[in-house]
Amino acid sequence: MAGKIPFGPTFTEMCDPSQIDPAIRQRALKALKENELDPINLFNITWKDENNQVRKMVLPPEVTGVDANIVVLLGRGFPSGSHKVGPAYATLIEGCVDGVIKPGEHTILGPSTGNFGIGVAYICKLLGFRAVVIMPDNMSKERYERIRKYGGDLDLTPGTESDVILTLQRTYELKKDPRNFALAQFELLPNYRFHRHVTGNAAIEAVQGIGNGRIACFTSAPGSAGTLGAGDQIKKAFPECKVAALEPYECSTLYNGGRGQHRIEGIGDKMCTLIHNVLNTDFIVLIHDEDTVRGLKVFQDGTEVLMKNGVKEADALALRDNFGPSGICNILGAIKMAKYLRLGPGDNVVTVATDGFDRYPSVLEDLARRTLEIEDFVLERWFKDIFLKAHTHYILDTRRPEAKGRLFQQKEKDWLPFGYTREYLDAMKSPSFWEDEYAKIEYYDAKIKELR
Fold this sequence. Notes:
Blueprint (H helix, E strand, L loop, with lengths): L10 H5 L6 H13 L21 E4 L1 H4 L4 E6 L10 H13 L9 E5 L3 H13 L2 E7 L4 H9 L3 E5 L6 H11 L5 E3 L7 H17 L10 E4 L8 H9 L4 E7 L4 H4 L26 E5 L1 H13 L1 H6 L4 H6 L6 H16 L7 E6 L7 H10 L5 H13 L6 E3 L3 H15 L6 H6 L3 H21 L1
Parallel strand pairs: 2-10, 3-4, 3-6, 4-5, 7-8, 7-10, 8-9
Antiparallel strand pairs: 1-2, 9-11
Helix pairs in contact: 4-5, 4-8, 5-6, 8-9, 8-19, 11-14, 11-16
């Protein structure tokens, strides 16, 4: 394998798989079912299913308690079980195109709290690289098992989700060895490019034929803040769209500089990431971490309770297995914003489910240990309190210049210590910075095709 890269799809092909050679597409779809570790699976990195339709779910109003349509893009259909495999591939392939990553020479580092690390291990397995995933030592055990299954090594740092700064420091330590190359999801812009182009366009397509066919609001909880880049693309199509960044109430860094431990794996990392385009973040919304875990329990094991409350059986069953705590967080943020913006029956709020339930059974086991009883009457109370009675407290409007200024200050505080210059950070205050970065897709697509 050394020296040879099996180049995968372009950004355009990930956005629209109908652009892929039909023979390759068919081989890839077959491999997705039969052999997860066949490199042809690179061509399955897309939000689209075998019929070229966006994998999505429109939540029934009986679940959300709002008139607006809550449309959820489903990430578990990606190879490795999460959309984070997309940014991992994009970052690696851009490095290969640029000649800064060489097969047989480099070990790939993946700083992560979970899904990105799983994606890095998976992509490296397919492309023949050694992967070292640097992550906190208190994440769900399913995450560690999946990384090892794909042949990745773990380098664990102390703490939980909100101690990700320690994983960054460890990554910078390991990067001193020139043989190590970090797929730094919090700071490298291929992550932004992937989500702006692939996720953003999938969201735009997902609302066709639903409500008024437009997007009134897009909600996403930043881990790396890559997914929020989709909002930049959505605003191009629907300028009225509001973008809301969601944070754990227990770790409200963007909201008010707060820091703390929390239970929503994959988000709330005590920083404003480098690739977060705060110019396009209109609101910051706080979500209680326990609501996301209890909400997951309701979706996973509360089918009877949901049916008793008017949800059709097929709809209740469809909620199973498609979400983790961060997906529930994104849904709660969507419900809150629908209420806050007073959206009606024709309006659409779009959000994403990063992964599925397969990496969270231990999270529900932990909930059971911490909770005195979880009978159906408890699940019913949780369902009503968390979903139907979702309130609009803790929503911060960040559209004014002073609010943007505070977010830029947070970014400086977080990234100047890692060697970024004030000039570079200041450049991010201009929309042209982000447009120029997005425009590089054309260059990378041409190079991938040529090298392939």
